[in-house]
Write a structure and sequence with these properties.
Rossmann fold; disordered N terminus; globular; six-stranded parallel β-sheet; 2 domains
Length: about 375
Amino acid sequence: MGLMLSTISKKPFRSVKTKKMRILFLPKYSESGPSSRYRFYQYLELISRSGLSYKVAPLFDEKYVHRFYTTGKKSIILTVIGFINRFFIMITSWHYDLIVVEYELFPYMPGLFESLINLTGKKMILDFDDAVFVRYQNSSNPLIRFLLRKKIFRVVQLAQGVIVGNRYLYDEFISYNKNISLIPTVVSSKLYDSVVSGSGSDKFIIGWIGSLSTSRYLLPLCDIFRTFDKESFQLNLIGFDKRLRDQFEGINVEWIDWKRETEITEIKKFSVGIMPLDDDLWSRGKCGFKIIQYMACRVPVIASPVGVNSEIIEDGINGFLASDPDEWRERIRYFISNREVAKKMGNSAYEKFVRNYSLERNYLKYLDVIGLSRD
């Protein structure tokens, strides 16, 4: 059975409940950044209905996000501008009753401002959907490892509440802060249901959606794809790193640029969705978001049994877990040969999505955690 998704702290954080409460949201990215979009921005309309005053101030703006997600390169100038803007935002933070932060206030810097917020008595909630502490611990720079390897755990200690996207992060943080709530990264069933299903083609489509940084996880599957007849399936890759396309020679691939307006339509064309991962600390901290998107589109899944993947996927019911090349090959072959079963598993995947991983089922928990009533 999958993890019951609820607030699992015995003493969940509650801030002052007042209609005049002022909230400062500090996501890492503008709305174009996936983590910020689904962990922050999609809740704002719901918060607006409560009649509360809030301000959203991302660390990195649209220009930074566009450059980073299209080229993989970080702009030093835009980074400096982002840090300066956040510094001035922090000076005005005394205006707010609650500060909600994605990960940390200033990446690759000591947690000075988190400590100052704590000293002033301001309420602060941190939100994590990645094991960001691993980047510091595994940095190739010895100075970063020395100075920042414990930073995330220290700022977690300073917060009045912490929201995490999976059990792995909960287990990592629970000894540092008892007020931890587990809320998965979710999407709206209403939004996904409003999009018309795929093209209706007879092609069997194995699909993947991701980014430049996650494209590398697909490379070990290339030899497996080549063991199948080229005409037996089509591989649809959304948002894949163009620099790695030559690794797919001899495979029937459709390269699809990621666009917010079309991503749901494109996923609904998939016959099966895949999420391969390496079994390392960084991957264990992921929230299985690709899987949740597939399930919301009634698409069954094949994924590596890493981290939360093993909780979301019920093997043989809404998809399959695959640990090694032989299992990946057999799971793919099974779906290609049993398309009706794949559709049934896709329907089971959708039912579990609605129950556990939809915005509609989780937003009340989010509002409760940041101290808003359900009225």
